[in-house]
């Protein structure tokens, strides 16, 4: 992209300070929004085709429309910054390098919807992000951008940083709400949805960091402009995290709808020398794995669905020919089993069984009937749990079994893993060319 938006301040020295942020045009969108009616702001967000950047992809403007116009109790904004999906790391950059853009987006959102209190719920391990956000919030209180009667507009809005327990499930929106209330981060049954019964029983808007950080640009240039930076139903510039066996891993900004091939070759610098692309995960570890014949898949929710996966967070992990797909499935099953909150039997027990079976296959102790057993287990997990964590286990494990069945069979037939052990350079098996 010739002009950067979401990442324009990432390389600007001291852009995390109010002084530098304002010197680069910061908080002008907020002042423009204060001259607009709340419904006009919501209309611009709807026109923008901004989809939730946390992975679910729900239209942000539509979600805003669910909030009550008149509420007898104070309403809340919660920014979901519990970025815990393996392979996903873009929101961290927004918080550490450009925190005022997120805060400006929060203030505009509060003005548009009449919200009184806001929480930025940050993953507990991200201590630098927590400290940076808190310093930025303190600056805003001193400048009068937060607190009572902001800039004489009559808007009262207080914003807090809340450190999470560092559990994956705390990133699920109702698990996050439970955590904010001081309870264990266990998801709630829906309905009621947070827009009706959220934090402390009050109407609550839940949005992702990148989503809220996009709001100042939508107000600054208009919803139609933002929509033009993408494809149908998927508007705006987007942050993509690229990782794995590529030359230039990192966070990049590009339009929505860009293809995976373009991201890999033009932004990620292609595969590393000696590496050949074997597979990629398009949007975080909970997505179905894809192979090189899907490189021309567009990074949009509808486009990626046509290729049998999901866009998720837009953070792609590329894997080369030496990657053992059984081991990837095994690691993911371990992760989701460890992070299960334990409320639902299919998730709690199913993830544990999947881990044990995959352990056995990877170690060369698997049986042919284990493959059918695994598929049966994930069928019983998916769609049968309170939240989407069960699906986050079932979808990728099924995809590895279906896309790379020969690798699972090879482990069973040979009685060992045919790939080298990562990080040790040696293994029981032989390296695949």
UniProtKB/TrEMBL annotation:
Catalytic activity: a quinone + NADH + 5 H(+)(in) = a quinol + NAD(+) + 4 H(+)(out)
Domain NADH-ubiquinone oxidoreductase 51kDa subunit iron-sulphur binding: 326-371
SMART domains, A to Z: NADH_4Fe-4S
A GO molecular function held by the record: NADH dehydrogenase activity
Superkingdom to which the source organism belongs: Bacteria
Keywords in alphabetical order: 4Fe-4S, Flavoprotein, FMN, Iron, Iron-sulfur, Metal-binding, NAD, Oxidoreductase, Quinone, Translocase
GO biological process, any: cellular respiration
Cofactors, names only: [4Fe-4S] cluster; FMN
Protein function: NDH-1 shuttles electrons from NADH, via FMN and iron-sulfur (Fe-S) centers, to quinones in the respiratory chain.
Family: Belongs to the complex I 51 kDa subunit family.
UniProt cross-references to NCBIfam families, sorted A to Z: nuoF_fam, PRK13596.1
Identification of the protein by name: NADH-quinone oxidoreductase subunit F
Organism in which the protein naturally occurs: Persicimonas caeni
